[in-house]
Fold this sequence. Notes:
By secondary structure, the protein is mostly beta strands. It is about 10% helix and about 30% strand.
Amino acid sequence: MWILFKVFLLFIWLLCSSNNGAYANDNDFTHSHIVSVSDLLPPTVCNRTRTALPQGPGKASLEVVSKYGPCSRLNKGMSTHTPPLRKGRQRFHSENSRRLQKAIPDNYLQKSKSFQFPAKINNTAVDEYYIVVAIGEPKQYVSLLLDTGSDLTWTQCKPCIHCSQQRDPFFDPSKSKTFSKIPCNSASCRILRKLLPPNDNCSSEECPYNIAYADNSSDGGFWAADRITIQEANRDGYFSWYPFLLGCTNNNTGDQNGASGIMGLDRSPISIISQTNTSYFSYCLPSPYGSTGYITFGRPDAVNSKFIKYTPIITTPEQSEYYDITITGISVGGEKLPFNSTYITKLSAIIDSGNEITRLPSPIYAALRSAFRKRMMKYKKTKADDEDDFDTCYDLSAYETVVVPKITFHFLGGVDLELDVRGTLVVFSVSQVCLAFAIFPSDPNSISLGNVQQRGYEVHYDVAGRRLGFGPGNCS
């Protein structure tokens, strides 16, 4: 029925006058999205009935929400058409600070191998999707931003020297009977202080950390251990872990836009994935904003597994904490960008749920932009408010229906990811619709696949099998 509807839309669109339509490519609509302009705008009403959480034995699933959408409790349920891009929110780590010399003792982390990590790449990180989990006993609920490019799970804690505003009450360690601080003079603290840059206020009671960002903000606090409980929709505890190592932030000069903190989902020893021995997890980031998504800890059932296509994660956790993948090509409107496959496959590529838009090396971005502009040449160009990130924008206010070329990423193993139209465009208003890609300014040899491009698909992390998978999502 959807195909017939698209054909009907195309027929009507071709009959329209030039004020209501524009023909972007006379040759082939197979490789284009035909979409109503009004459908590009984020909804203002929350529709939770669109998404069903995956269920089954051995799984823990919970709701994922866009913090800017109408389902969000972080912005009081008010939708916005202009989600902010926090520029340059990135960690500064030297190689020494990403090196774990030996296992952390005292049963806080059960690791026996030596880990050598590269420096954190420079990117523009926007953690846009959050989940609600419980910390402590009795449970205190916090909203954590999902980030597969971060290691530490942290939340703002009482008493707070300087904290950003959040919707949930600050986590109060004094009210948790399972809470404990990591002492500064412990062997655990000595290892942890090598993993993250410490601040200078080490006392006998606390093991401090400090994370500096490129926008001159920072997150400072101390290491602690407590119980973390993953919640299902009915808020009954399903997946609980103790002791869980987390950061208790009490001096935060940044802004999470209402969230309590961050959930680190990478492969480092301190991430929630490593600490809880999670071998497989997946998520579906909602498209559009008006619905909700989900994250599932546990493997899919046999029926759904048939529809998942996997590409290798090309590094071991000992080599890299990130989910490193190999991109073999990019197509726009069904035509591959004119690059030698050897050049693209040698680029360092990661998938990162905490990075909003996909960042590309300058030559690849220039080729993608040129191919996209060629197929959108009959639409009126305009300038973005944020010209540093977006240089290819269109005023679509004169049109009812538009044709947008499909963009497809090709991965090692013959896996193709055809982006949703909302994974191709960032919509600030109908008069400002922009290509949702940007240059990687600090690293000419890296690609970071952001969460905008992941919308509407199930993204599967087979951590134990070192595979990354894409499948049809139930959140679009």
